[in-house]
Amino acid sequence: MSRFFATGGSDSDSDSSSDEEVVQRPTVPVYTFSDDEEEIKRVVRSTKEKRYEELTNLIKQIRNFKKIKDMSSMLSSFEDLQKAYVKALPVIQKEENGQTPRFYTRCLVELEDFINEMWEDREGRKNLSKNNSKSLASMRQKLRKYVKEFEEDLTKFRANPDMPDDEEDEEKRDPEPDSDSEVPPKATIKTSKPAEGEEGESSSDSDDWPSDSESSSASSEDEDKFQTMRERFLKRNTEKEEDEEKEKKKEERRKERKDREKRRKKEDEEDEEGEWETVKGGMAIPSEKPKMFAKDAEIDLNLVIKKLNEIVAARGKKRTDRREQIELLHELQAVADQHQLGPAVAVKIKFAIISAIFDYNPKVSDAMKPEYWTRLLERMSEMLDMLQNHGDILISESVTEEMERFDEPPYRVRGCVLTSLERLDDEFIKLLKECDPHSNEYVERLKDEAKVSAIIDKVQKHLELHGAQSELCRIYLRKIEHLYYKFDPTVLQQKNGEIKLTVVTSMQEMERLCKYIYAKDGTDRLRTRAILSHIYHHALHDNWFQARDLVLMSHLQETIQHSDPSTQILYNRTMAHLGLCAFRHANIKDAHNCLVDLMMTGKPKELLAQGLLPQRQHERSKEQEKIEKQRQMPFHMHINLELLECVYLVSAMLIEIPYMAAHEFDARRRMISKTFYQQLRSSERQSLVGPPESMREHVVAAAKAMRNGHWGACNNFIINEKMNTKVWDLFYQADAVRAMLTKLIKEETLRTYLFTYSHVYDSISMSTLAEMFELDKSVVHSIISKMIINEELMASLDDPSQTVVMHRSEPSRLQSLALQLADKINNFVDSNERILETKQGNFFLRSANQGAFRGDRQNYRAGNVQDWSRQRRDNRREY
Amino acid sequence: MATRGGPSRRVPENDSTIAYVQADGLAVMKIVKHCHEEAASNMDIAQGALLGLVVDNRLEITNCFPFPKHTDDTMDEEEYQLAMMRRLRRVNVDHFHVGWYQSADVGNFLSLPLLESQYHYQTSIEESVVVIYDSQKSSRGFLTLKAYRLTQQAIEMYKEGEFTPETLLKLKVGFENLFVEVPFVIKNSALTNIMMSELAEMVPEEQGSKFLDLGTASVLEGQLRCLMDRVDELNQEAIKFNRYQQLVSRQQQDKHRWLQKRSQENAARAAKDELPLPEEDVNKLFRPHPVPPRLNPMIIAGQINTYSQHISQFCSQSLAKLYITQALQNAKESKTTI
Q1: Chain A contact for B234 (CB, 8 A cutoff)
Q2: Residue in chain B nearest A864 by alpha carbon
Q3: Most buried pick, A15, A36, A663, B243, via CB within 10 A?
Q4: Is A130 exposed, middle or buried (0-12, 13-18, 19+ CB in 10 A)?
């Protein structure tokens, strides 16, 4: 293929010659000739012909390169030319009495001119690629040296630009570029194509082949003949350079040649047409065509199946052109349709096409090309439609090759729709991951989601009729996976009674599918995933209690670490949504507990598979990274991380700040949320705290306000324009969430206020508190009562005056510090005593050989009596 | 514990070359200025060199200059010091390097670097002292300048460079005899004294209410917090040492068992007329565990000691104040009732 392109590209002097082409070009002629020589051994040619042909071909190439200014290739060709000339030298000596052949001289002159021109053109030279300019310089030098040898001939040629010869040249030059450029590709095509075909096809095909290869070789022979003819003609030209007498003859010849040129052009055109046709149909068709047409009459079921098997057998082999396979199969399908070989065959062929498209992409990790993807989608839905229309086709893996039946119903076809579907779904996700999620391309691809879902539905229908339970479970799970993350507003409307209960929402659908899986699934994995998706779906639609109960009933949190990564990711996603759901239901503690595991590590992004963290110190190898990349979620399924973090931080704030206020001097105070603490501390460390910008800063500022008991400020920091757009508006019922938040903030700030400032008050009126926090008196009353019952607040309620009377039994700051110090010193004394104990224990355990050391120590003690006497006393007591 | 370290520190060593430190008002003012500037700008400690001369058994500090902060690597510190001294000499200032000063908060000056640099000073210049200026306490109105010198034991200990419990025991070094405090006297010239007394007359007399300002809570709180941190650290060290002890005792047992086994084997071999196996292998088999260095706990203990001293001092002052206030209050009440 590329060969063809490489040579074909050379006649259009486009600048878009890629590197590959440049590399390949010099090799082309070599192949061509070797092929030629191999195949056309029958043609006997003189050495002169051969040598001259070589030379002229090289010259042609150089001319081509000249046109596209490919200096590096030109240089190599020039070197080849030199070598070829040296090879041809004896022949030249013999034939032309040592005269340099005219065409060779011309080439040199042209080349020299061209190089000089190129060299002069400084601007152009600058624009050349590095490689090319280098080659240009070395080419110039080489040419200069080389030309010196031919100086005489050159000057002769230049001085005597033979009028007739020139005319001829001009004439010839006109067509030449075309012919020049066209000849090599044709040769390559003609010669390489059969070779390729032979390579690609299995031996069983060989009976189809001879005719084709014959014809092509004949044509190439033709070409060769022509080339040699022309060479002969050229040579004659050089021979009769100065023979002016024979102008007439020349004219005749010229006519002749013109005719021939015309003829050849015609031929070319014809050839071209033929060829272009084949090209359009892909490389494969020449091999297909003869079969289709030659055996037109005989096409029947077995033949098609045989052919199909042949094509399929080539699958996976190294030399197989995967694209060609797809084309072949399409062709085959067309033939099958034409001859109406029945739906079973069509299904079978479709199957083969689908798997061929799957195979087209050699790398597992990369996504397939969009055009193939659309094709795949089409084929898949076509096949499924067919299956649906013909209910008498049994398609299953259990059908062996021998058992397949295509001729009459009930048909039996080997294959598995489900596997193909799963593969298709995976490819779809891969394709999505490949796209930039912020581009239109992604949206375009995402539109296929509907198609994929439709296909899944079709397969589901099919399997519901034919499939086994395990297969049904699998397809249900696929469906669930396309369903669970989608928010369906009708569910909420139904909950609110706006829609009748009879309407089937995604919730009921999920319920049905999941319950089937719970009941029928034999493998643990499917059930786990189904449960997780179910919980996710519940949480997404605010069914907090159902979601929570499912989590608690499934006991997944205990076993999840043993499951595979993708299930773990799903678990993390589920927990994230459960946390959000709990938050919406004002269950702050639960929300915090759900999210704490995700946020504590500081890499929720990784845990939710929504992107890789930047590589640090080669934490992971290339392989690992590849695997991790495969696990990533497509963008449309992402959970907003900022929302998640904000919800987490806010719930942490609502729990932590009152706790901190209550246990300010507790030595054994523990942090509830490390991440929140870090945020708080980093903000405290700043010498100058500006107004909050980011979401985190907002929360931290709110936390500080809450600590001081300013519920209003706290509320303003949490709920404002910025935070609304960033976070809160992302909730479905944002206003409800905001109202809930305000209420919670008020309550928790009240608690914090009481903890922090209770030591200032002797008594405090509840109505004042209610006013301060804009809460109902009853709410204040209940909060305070709760605090008193939990012994968080040392106070009592005085009912008649509606006040809280403080007992003031809490120690003052200094006192609690002193208590703390006493605690610590106690610990220290403990550990000190332990040191002493081991020392004494050793003291008695010591064996005799350490006596000297002991004596030493005792001496020292004797010298320091007053210090150690007390210890002695202790020792005695121990006795 | 607190009393144990107290007196030994106050009593100067008999064999010490200098009995007390006498500082000029100028030098003191310069130290105070530098330390306060440093404390105000950031929390770094201020350091500087002291210049003066030794007269008999008295060390006179007549001038000082601050060390540059380590902001750039281009400047060589020693070169800077030498250049500074050369220039001061030109303006006829004493250029004998007699020590250095450092700012500190309450008692946290005691640290490894301080110990190290004072060791180097004292080994190169026999008489050098380190002067500690307590900026926090001074800002509350108690000018606190203290001069310290390393004791002979401490210098020896440093020379050995080993801080195992054994060596410390042998050298009889404890936290209480790392440093010895040298009395610090500020001496002004007669002219200055005259001016001061004149100024004192010009300053309006205080009402006396501020003398009774207790300010207990904040100061005590801060000191308690620091003390708690230190106790924690020391506790960590104790636990570390305890672990080490356990390791050693376990190893000792293993060793013992191994030796017994070996001797049994040897007895068996002797019965069979074979050469006994050497018992030296035990040292190869059981490598002694690295002993945790005791210098750090010692320093922490020293710090705790200073904190405790400060707290007790502060508390006794506060108590006295409290009694005075009580008396005053009583007097006031009795006055009003009469």
Answers
A1: yes
A2: B172
A3: A36
A4: exposed
